[in-house]
């Protein structure tokens, strides 16, 4: 069931998925059934949507084929399809029951092309994000679609005039204008959109004066004003998610300290503050579950106070020091995600966290100064599933009374650990064997100047490993040939293993066809694997074809020498 859903993208049952897969088997198959228009018109919307998705994914969809889906399909996602242009939209505009149309990143969709969508009566959602050729003229066509509830036009060519034209779409609940450089004047024109719940206006030219009109949106729950000059927001009591990244923040509640906003998600990456404690004093502590303060200059975490319901905390690239970790420990009971990467935390700071984050599933300490002494404290975080220790001082061992003790063994206490990143550390071959006994481990990334063949061989017994990154290590041709991969392995990344030869990689791929191998030589190997029919003239090909027909059970030994392959 899971694989079927993944393949179809719409949760189809295995039988339905197989039928859809067969129908999208190739151009000849499509040509065979496309003439059965009446049957296709009666196809349930869910199945029609799934079939069209599969055709699009396999690049089997073309404009005239769209016509057979006009009476059945309700949702279409053609995002990123470069071929989509005015001809495609001419067919799409005739769809009778279309509710969702996604054309993000379709570079050939322009203002004249969207004329075909004018007046569509069933369309609820339209995504034209990053269609750079959409201008104010195109929006005038879109403004005639009165049924629209969601409109995405981020990073298009709109100006103030185009934004003001959107004001006629009074049923809008979501409006994404990210990256469109409009001014306060245009924002004021949107006050009539009183049903707006989601407003994305990052990168615009609005100021505090323009932001004051946001109070007109009495149902607004999501607001993104990152990369703007806004420093102070009016009181928005319904707001639950706020993004003010790369802003200078003085107040999110118009300076009213008696008012508490029930924010659930706050993203303020790379923001600066007038008074950070005053900013956070406007938030109801118990409501906040998601806080992203990555790249913030502040080293003060006192404001965390009573935010005991926090589940996601990103402090990467910040100036926090080890002493501030105590504030995290005090509110760590419900924490599930914590990133301290690129910060000044040390191994001793993690001692404070040990035992205080029982629900933590993801921890990133990449680019920090922690060493092997931290592993014991990390092992006391029982729910960890994802651990990033890349570019740290981890060596995999410690010296105790002149005796070398393998430190990675401590992580065996983490019964649920699925992903471990040890890239760009100081690991050596003899510290790798303990990793093979991590029973839940599925994703492992190892890169060090000191890892070679024995390290790879030690992982043969890693019983659940699916993805192994062994990039940039000193792996020899012989070492790869002798490697017996775990039965579960599906991805082996050997990028940067410069000693390997194309023959060794090719031989490994032949012996283990279910494993996808990544290496710089793979593309070259695929390029060299040409169509061997080009070695023969037309007459020789006809003769070979005749021989094949006359002896359907032809043995390998009967093949011409040029076509024989070594076993």
TrEMBL record:
Protein's name in the database: Disease resistance R13L4/SHOC-2-like LRR domain-containing protein
Record region (Disordered): 547-567
Family matches, as Pfam families: LRR_14
Record-annotated Disease resistance R13L4/SHOC-2-like LRR domain positions: 89-366
The keyword Repeat belongs to this UniProt entry's keyword annotation: yes
Keyword Repeat among UniProt keywords: yes
Organism: Oryza meridionalis
Keywords: Repeat
Annotated signal peptide: none
SMART domains for the chain: LRR_CC (SM00367)
